[in-house]
Design a protein that fits this description.
The chain is mostly beta strands. The chain contains 4 helices and 18 strands. The chain has a 4-stranded antiparallel beta sheet with strand order 5-6-7-18. It has a 3-stranded mixed beta sheet with strand order 10-11-12.
């Protein structure tokens, strides 16, 4: 912001007065001996502002509704600076790209509190799955993101074969979480809200077909994609997930063993 109230000789300026944060021009004399008057040579100043990025951890559902109801909006994960597109769908803010956080994440900026920090990729899942150790496999590109087993997805709070409690903690950014399973009605933030409104919601969700899971070191069903939910299946070492088949264009729900790996998309209510 430049004050342009006076000329160099102290006389009142004309044209621009007060302070200005827009583009403006100032007449420039080649020599102080030249008489006052209009000159064709000008110096142009352009004011440039640095936009503060919208971080996921502080980005609210109401902001998402305002900014991302009709198109994707880009936000940033404060943990590693990754940018993600989001969209307001059926009463909630959904990530429309797959999560790709790796390494050790802090509870301060994540949706878990049992541990101060969790290494979500203690092992690569292509070496064999585990119910107890957080594992992932990085696809190496932003489109597919990262596959996670359930121990990683739940921030190591749902492990072993006997734990069938709801995953209330996970590796989503703070204030975001794994979507719920609820199928019976169009509950905001549930995979049921996407399944029940598939014709209108599926294009907004932007599903990616790049593999259902890593199983025994291999990527299976590459014409599909699947995303973990917070709902664990009782007495089965399994969890519900959202499944997309690109060959049919259908998105539905199913369950799978927690020692295999799926994508993650977080939701904000």
């Amino acid at each position: 912001v430049i004050n342009a109230t006076t000329n160099h000789d102290g006389t009142a300026a004309t044209g621009y007065t007060g302070t200005s944060s827009t583009n403006f021009t100032i007449g420039a004399k080649a020599s102080a001996d030249q008489a006052a008057g209009d000159y064709t040579n000008v110096i142009t100043f352009t004011a440039v502002t640095n936009e503060v990025p919208a971080y996921m951890q502080s980005f609210t559902a109401s902001e998402c509704q305002s900014l991302a109801s009709d198109a994707n909006y880009t936000v940033y994960d404060a943990r590693d600076g990754s940018d993600y597109t989001v969209r307001y769908i059926e009463g909630a803010c959904w990530m429309t790209q797959n999560l790709r956080i790796t390494g050790t994440v802090s509870s301060n900026e994540s949706n878990f509190s049992t541990y101060n920090s969790v290494n979500v990729c203690e092992e690569d899942i292509i070496n064999g799955g585990s119910l107890d150790t957080p594992q992932c496999h990085d696809s190496g590109n932003d489109t597919y993101g990262v596959w996670y087993n359930y121990a990683a997805a739940s921030a190591k709070t749902i492990i072993g074969s006997s734990d069938d409690t709801l995953a209330t903690e996970d590796i989503c950014p703070a204030n975001w979480h794994l979507p719920s399973y609820i199928i019976a009605n169009n509950t905001a933030g549930s995979i049921g809200s996407l399944v029940s409104t598939m014709s209108t919601s599926l294009p907004k969700f932007s599903p990616v077909a790049g593999g259902v899971y890593h199983y025994d070191g291999q990527l299976a069903y590459t014409n599909t994609g699947s995303w973990w939910t917070s709902a664990v299946i009782v007495n089965g070492s399994m969890a519900h997930y959202l499944n997309y088949d690109s060959s049919t264009g259908v998105i539905d729900n199913s369950g799978h063993y927690r020692d295999d790996a799926h994508y993650i998309r977080c939701v904000r209510l």
